[in-house]
Design brief:
heterodimer, A: mainly alpha, 77% helix, globular, B: alpha/beta, 6-stranded mixed beta sheet, 4-stranded antiparallel beta sheet
Amino acid sequence: MSSVVVSEPGRTLAQGFGRGIRDWVPAVVILVAILVGWQLAIDAFDIQRFLLPKPSAIAARFWEERETLWSAGWFTFQEALWGFAAGCSAAILAALLLARFRPLGTALMPYFIAANAVPIIAFAPIAIAWFGIDKGSKIAIAGVLCFFPVLVNTLKGLTSVRPATIELMRSYAAGDVQIFRRVRIPASLPYLFSSLKVASVLAMIGAIVGEYFGGSLTSLGIQIKSASALFNFETAWAAILVACILGMSFYLVIALAERLAMRWYPSSRGAQS
Amino acid sequence: MTTAAAAVTIENVTKTFAKGGTTALQDIDLELQPGEFVSLIGPSGCGKSTLLRVIGDLIQPSTGTVHVGGKTAQQARVDNDYGMVFQEAVLFDWRTVAKNISLPLELAGWERTRRTERVKEMVDLVELGGFESHHPWELSGGMQMRVAIARALSFDPKLLLMDEPFGALDEMTRERLNIELLRIWEAAGSTVVFVTHSITEAVFLSTRVVVMSPRPGRIAGLVEIDLPQPRTADTREEPRFFELATELRELLRGRTAEGVH
């Protein structure tokens, strides 16, 4: 009985990332190749700068305008963050309530799944009418975008517990509250975190697209929009680069939180990632 | 009616499921004495798992009564008088082996030091020393089942209910765990109700076997297993072992229309 199937108890988080860095090498090579190809192709095919500027030109603009761009980025990121926080906490709270009162959840679930498929971005102009042209409307759009995927996934995690697990807990005379605390909530964490990762991306999209419909001049969306309108494409691309960096950092922070919260989870030990 | 000494008393139990109106159990009367190892055997659909859950108060009988150690089945469940082992190990991935074993102790409100002590005893009992801080997915199927058994015994219940615990394991692991289970049963001194559809497993483990027939589930016969204790790997080769297995096989065949696989 000494056959241990998979055993890497000694692996630490740091080692996990060390392995991660080696895994990233091919991806970095690809990135460099794309940038070099892009740079060369623009000269070779005489591509107009309003179609696609050179990476070197974008990088130069990114450096020149770094203060404006980063403060605009920070402004937009705050909207995304607040929207994410509000949307996700409301979704988690709703999921807990609906899992606790199952008939309510069963009645509402089809509508949530339907709402999840609605292109919420279409409501952006209306959100501006409701919440004002300032931060409020962007936070609302980002929040609503985050709400449904987090709700649907968390509810699924909370309710798709194997029946034998519930029988086991009942054999110990455990009540609903204990079953929630010790079974449903831990079992829902993988579902919750994968939806939070999706939500972190959606929050950035919501905030930027919301800004396209009007907002503060110091926001990323307005920077991209007005730079494009003025044929200032290097600035637009540099602003997009800021949005990418912020969005990916946000995602990575959530992914890191996931690893820390679920060190027990098999895939976070390197089985998949 | 209920003698205080009986480990389990089942009187007139019938169970009809509302869905489809199938009668899973009909007129079941059975009394188990403390320290017995009783197997429930029968083909799929004979209600043996249902009967086990009725004893554990996880399913309510339609008629009849169940007493565990003189208490109602519900009171016995609330008092943690039995431990249950399922077909699957049903371990929690987010808990280590030690934490899985201590779950019922946490629910019962044991202090940390007492829990730690008890978990250590249990780990020794099922011979999992060195694996305390492993997670379930790092263990083989047989080891996972041992954790489940340790968890079921951790709060020292008088009764152990087991629902085909070794059904998903390979033959060699199963035979080894059978011997282990008998050792644990002797050490713990509890009463065991063991559901299986393996004739040889039932003969090897039990002091008594309850043969059930399907649709509706009834008791087709009771067979005393008079093989000497303790049982070893050699027990399986004794002539008496084969006689008893044949007796069970005939009882199963006699009462089932479609026969037994």
